[in-house]
Amino acid sequence: MATTQRVRGPKPGKQQAHNRASYDPSSGQPWRTGVIMQPEEAEKALTAANLAGLSFAGLVNELVRRMDVDEAGLPVWVNELRAQEELPKAG
Fold first, then answer.
1. Full-prediction pTM beyond 0.85?
2. What would the pLDDT profile of 20-72 be if each residue is shown by its tens digit?
3. What is the C-alpha to C-alpha distance for residues 65 and 48, in angstroms, rounded to an integer?
4. Is pLDDT at 10 greater than 60 in this prediction?
5. What element of type H or E holds 46?
6. Who contacts 37 (Cβ-Cβ below 8 Å, separation ≥6)?
7. Which of 1, 44, 48, 50 sits at 20 to 30 Å (Cα–Cα) from 59?
8. For residues 61, 66, 70 and 75, what is the CA-based torsion angle, rounded to 10 degrees?
9. Contact, 23 vs 31, CB < 8 A?
10. Which is it for the CA torsion 55, 57, 59, 61, positive or negative?
């Protein structure tokens, strides 16, 4: 499988400083969003949704509803992810 190199911009999945979400939950309106997923994660998500009898949106809503967050609202797994990103490079 050929891979393409990213020429510029943030690493995929990283927040873009100039493109913050502007949804207001107090509006009571559903939030329609678009996501770009890598093929492996897309396949995993679609398979899980299909087997659970959910739409992709239903799966994401259920995952977020069940997501553990700390007292500040930060997902509990973020510090583990950050620690992995900070590992020293060999060489």
1. no
2. 778 888 999 998 888 899 999 999 999 999 999 999 999 999 999 999 999 99
3. 16
4. no
5. helix 39-52
6. 45
7. 1
8. -50
9. yes
10. negative
